[in-house]
Amino acid sequence: MRRMPILPPTAEHIAFAAAALRRGELVGMPTETVYGLAALASDPVAVARTFAAKRRPSDNPLIVHIASAADLPEVARTVPPAAQALAAAFWPGPLTLVLPRQPHVLAAITAGGDTVAVRVPDHPVALALLRAVGAPLTAPSANPFMRLSPTAAADIDADLQAQLACTLDGGPCRVGLESTVVDCTGPGPVRVLRPGGVPRIALAAVLGRDVPLADVATAAAAGPRPAPGMYARHYAPRTPLRLAEALGADDAGLCFGPPANPRQVAMPADPESYGASLYRVLHALDALGARELVVQQPPREPAWEAVADRLRKAAAAG
Ligand code: AMP
Ligand code: MG
């Protein structure tokens, strides 16, 4: 298998990556959340390649990345006042807004629906690449479907990496968890479809009212999905993962106290640091070939919502 280069993000390499994207190739793009699999949003072949490279089901829509909120009219038909307020408060940043789509947005991107998810990433390399291309980019996480998202260039799966023109190395991802996805299209108040980098309490502070978690975000159990792209199992290492109140002395996994053996990792006690290191630590533990990974249950508090969501989905039966 060819190994495509992981390149330092010099001006020359950004220009190289932008040219590849304009030709319809795929590029590994650092963002503050996780590494993205970037493609030109207006190119149906490039978008189809994205789904194929990730082995992503076609009913799972892609997030469109833009360089600034000023580009919103290129993809969104209307931007309700609440969405405008959230964009002004959190962009660039780990917040994705689901909005009515412009008719020209490819159906493959929206999974055939009338809405489009869009965000402005808060990473200098992603923003430089978006500006160099001069057009919106789709960028799902650069991992095979269901698997752990990469939070460092070297964590991108080798088979996937081989399908990219290059990956720009932007260093470790600051947030380390995916964006918060907010549905701004309903008749009712905006709601969170996926907890993520922006806590719900921060959204509520900007809007001056509670922002509920949509049922899909909690009860993404078996059965039909009330929102596209929500799966009970997701973000999972290859090794089976189980949540527990405490780790046994011989378990491999993640704990809060002192590790009882070298296959246990003591995790940070604050949710931001925990989230920033979660996928990197799981990637490393996954390589141990343990029978299972045990994760000590994080505090059941609102600040831990995004971490708890990822752990619950990683532990869900496939
Ligand atoms: P990823 O890019 O891998 O972080 O995942 C993108 C996720 O965003 C999808 O799995 C959906 O959960 C969500 N999403 C994208 N587009 C839409 C949309 N139009 N409506 C609702 N959710 C969406
Ligand atoms: Mg993903």
Molecular structure report:
- This protein has 318 residues and is of the alpha/beta class.
- It has 10 helices and 14 strands.
- The strands form 2 sheets. The protein has a 10-stranded mixed sheet with strand order 1-8-2-3-7-4-6-5-9-10, with helices on both faces.
- A hairpin with a 7-residue loop joins strand 9 and strand 10.
- Helix 1 crosses helix 5.
- The longest helix has 16 residues.
- It is globular and about 55 Å long.
- The two termini are 28 Å apart.
- The structure holds adenosine monophosphate and magnesium ion.
- Magnesium ion binds next to loops.
The helix content is 25-40%
Structural class from helices and strands?
A: alpha/beta
Small molecules bound in the structure, each named once: adenosine monophosphate, magnesium ion
Strand fraction:
15-25%
Distance between the termini: 28 Å
Poorly predicted runs of 5 or more residues: 220-224
Assembly type of the chains comes to single chain
- The helix/strand order is EHEEHEHEHEHEHEEEHHEEEHEH
Give the neighbour order of strands across the main sheet: 1-8-2-3-7-4-6-5-9-10
User: What's the number of helices?
Assistant: 10
Main sheet overview:
10 strands, mixed
How many β strands by DSSP?
A: 14
What is the 3D shape? globular
Mean pLDDT: 94
Task: Calculate Rg over CA atoms.
Answer: 19 Å
